Fold each of these.
Amino acid sequence: MGPVADADVVVIGGGPVGLATALYAVRAGLVPVLLEPRAAPIDKACGEGLMPGAVAALGRLGAPVTGRPFLGIRYVDGARSVEARFRGGPGLGVRRTELHAALAAAAERAGVEVVPRAMSALTQDPTGVRVDLDGAGPSSGVRSGPSASVRGRFVVAADGLHSPTRRLLGLDVPPRGVRRFGLRRHFRVGPWTDLVEVHWSPAGEAYVTPVADDEVGVALLGSGRGSWQDRLQDFPALRERLAGAEPTSTVLGAGPLRQRSRSRRAGRVVLVGDAGGYVDALTGEGLAVGLAQARAAATALAAGRPQLYPRAAARVSLPSAALTSGLLASTRTAPGRRAVLTAAHRAPWLFDQAVNALAHD
Ligand SMILES: Cc1cc2nc3c(=O)[nH]c(=O)nc-3n(C[C@H](O)[C@H](O)[C@H](O)COP(=O)(O)OP(=O)(O)OC[C@H]3O[C@@H](n4cnc5c(N)ncnc54)[C@H](O)[C@@H]3O)c2cc1C
């Protein structure tokens, strides 16, 4: 690896939110350097439903994606279901590899320097942050090399759910409550609806997102840690839909999903995306919220005022976090799920309003 120039902003993690942060930083007149040990395009366990707000943000960032449009959300509990359609344009089901490739290409066009190394340590002083680099990152395929460091006036940690930066800064909050996990897999089958379907069962939820005209992605969420086959048994109607359909990807997992950070800032370091905390995948807003945080971080750092970021991040994250927490708590039991569906049936405008309020940026 050649020498790495000092930067205005060192972005740790080149998932979608880290790449978007680097793009917003360039637009704000900053020079970013991005650290990502894994080779592109990166795949990840995800429901792959991009809310309309996220689709619009990607277009504005010069990273348009095609995917397959979906027009709203349907919640299904046995024979009962309720749905709401987006009023201001569709969402998109997009394979993570396609999303990553689009953002990586936009970053390359914008001249973002990407260093294929992992962050291993951080040292802050009054004018900047030194970021030490690992010889090789986790499962990166990158050969070990001499250790090196890169310095930035600021650092943005976009290193995901189990953020090593969050841990190193002592910002991790010990987990409490039910631990939930997610698994995802794709199947060669024509989508049977133009909505994202969320199936409820006593064991958790199954998310079905159309990602192509002949392919759907399925994400299983819940507290169980069984195999894909075991967990699919909890969703008989879905199992029937998928019977005989050829799997088109391997099973990938993630969790525990709930992660908390004491703060989204420590000195000159700010945390964006899942690194700053995550509630759950139930409402499918991780990417929309993460992209909005990326923008807020670039704005605060371009003003030289990282202290502005936590409030700006809370503004774009709280509505979704509150809805997700509320929905999780109220749908943990069968009577709770029935009550939510009944309420949504009785006051469809309210359900419609909630879905649409969160769908747009
Ligand atoms: C099962 C499941 C279903 C979901 N469904 C949806 C959905 O339908 N819609 C939606 O919008 N969201 C969904 N989400 C949430 C979404 O996947 C995340 O919010 C999103 O991936 C966050 O992006 P990120 O860039 O913050 O983190 P990530 O995508 O996790 O990227 C973090 C990056 O940091 C890198 N990294 C880690 N450590 C280091 C280090 N030390 N140095 C340098 N780099 C490092 C990693 O290699 C990785 O590439 C779902 C999540 C799960 C688990």
Amino acid sequence: MEKDFSKMALELIESSKAHENYRSEECINLIASEGLKSPAVKEILSLSQDLESRYAEGENDLEGHVKERHYQGQKYITKIENCTADLMKNLFGCNWIDVRLVSGTHANLATFKGLSLATKSNRMVVAPLSAGAHITHDYSGLAGMVIGLETINHAYDLDEMNIDPDKSATIIKATRPGIVTFGGSLFQFPHPVKEIAEVAKESGAYVVYDAAHVLGLIAGGQFQDPLKEGADFITASTHKTFPGPQGGVILANSGDERMERAIRKVQNAVFPLTTSNTHLGRLPALGLVALELKLYGAELAKQTVKNAQTAGKYLFDNGLKILGEKKGFTRSHQIAVDVQDYGGGRKIAESLEEANIILNKNLLPHDDQHNRESPSGLRIGFQDVTRRGFKESDIKYLCDLMLDVVKGKRKPVEVRKDVITLRQNFKGIEYGFRSVNEAVDHLKKYA
Ligand SMILES: Cc1ncc(COP(=O)(O)O)c(C=O)c1O
């Protein structure tokens, strides 16, 4: 073998090991889009390695169960997929799901494509990117460039940091889209779903709520429940506030002819239009997270939001500009901070990274939307530290460390020592099971 090739392979193995230690042992993670799996969920993922190699192409029914598979060797795979679907449906109180999506992007792809086929419309009303919508919703991303949808923006109220319900209703009535979408990536306050859903449906649209960021908070009853407020479909990732394996889901209630037509089109857009293998190895882990959130989801979501609000207030009281101040800073797991006065989002995110505090720069609603490389803001998420056991006083101490860096009181390398010590004080992962056996023992009490 050539020397260079073996050097590269060795570097790959060493970097993989080093990464695990760096991000899971030495850093404090405040990236709002990244979840933290329990030891039991990690264990069941490692026990699902055969599934990781398998295929299960085929059709599902209107309950989200397996209807027909085109491969042999399915006797357990079918049970696994059906059980996962049922656990998730139970958790979210709905009667249809598709668990075959490999990501939140895939969930949006299949849903937007399926609904544009069901409505024969290529128009979609979405929150503007500047208001925190995800690139998959936008004309410049998946919706426009891949599916060919014409996107029209909801009206956005900068002051309220939210979609303007009255003006958006007027836009929907005038443009009669096939899809109206809510939800986003910079997402602190519930969107006005119940105010707009009826108008959207009367105008011939299906209402989609992208819960990629807030799925775990919805499961815990700490954020708006979109299906109860009138959304037809939820699309989501399963690895942000929902602390599972990387993947996606689509949820809905079937039951009338309108929804059945749409669900069939969405299922068709899942398979055969956009999948062959569905990354089956993640399904047992997904089901196990549904169990964890059934038991601990309310407590986890409540503490997550409390921690985000605590950070918002503490940083604000210490001189930082936090968006949404008059509305209590946030009702989700994340806050948005304007650090333009300290050099902007990129500079501060890089300085914090030097201190082993990992978060990301973010465009804020008032920024020039083309200036993605140097936005004025930071987006900070508290779902990871909450699951590690951080309570309000720990959050305040973490904020002190961040303030030292942001305000240049101490060099990031000096702060890093304190960050590592703080991280080492939180060895466990809470609101979940420590092992698959612990979950089984718990379940046996009820069986
Ligand atoms: C609102 C929203 N939708 C969709 C996605 C895409 O999800 P995934 O990364 O699972 O493809 C994201 C990613 O962060 C998101 O924030």
